[in-house]
Amino acid sequence: MEQPNLPREQQTWQPPRPGDQWQPPRGRRKRPGYREQQARNARMFGGRRKWVLLALAAAVPISAVGLVAWGLLFPRSDAERTGDCGYYTRAARGGWDFHRRACTDPDAVLLITNGWSTQKCATGDMPFARSRQKNTRSPTKYLCTHLNAKVGECVNDPGNVNAHLYRIRKVPCGTGVFEVDTRIDANDSKVCDASRKRFRETKAITHASPAVSFCLHKI
After folding, report:
1. On the CB side of 89, how many CA atoms lie within 13 Å of its CA?
2. How far apart are CA 141 and CA 113, in angstroms?
């Protein structure tokens, strides 16, 4: 029996007096059979630890599916590496997809000279450059490309640069397309001087880093 005028730690046990009613001990009460039910739950479900493991196991494949779906919907265009060759297409959502090909492949119209980085492209390479910025606080990244072609190959239109770079393609040579007639390892704005005397319409493409220049004439 508790002594109401003394703190709990100073109370001494007193035998119950006639007429006293039994009072349950203070604290959280457990219903009858509580421990037996807990034991049955542990045997049936493996306890809380099993539920945590099951939840984690379910979350892993769901996360994997989400990442795969994200990759399909928004392909990583920053996968381009220096030295890669290929071409771009514009997806329906407005982004650009890079299609990697061997540099000797007939479809490889572009050469990546500098993959995505904060290093700006050379001034003479800006028409064949790309840039992007995730947000106003992040640094601008640049991607530098060159025309990848040899003498005798044709492209649809060498004017497909800047925002239209995804349109440029190597095509079979024929009427209305541009054929590469000159290629020199130098940044030479006069690369088409000789070709202009032989062809009615020419287009010069010059690159600064590394230095290379092309002259194309319209067939």
Report:
1. 7
2. 14
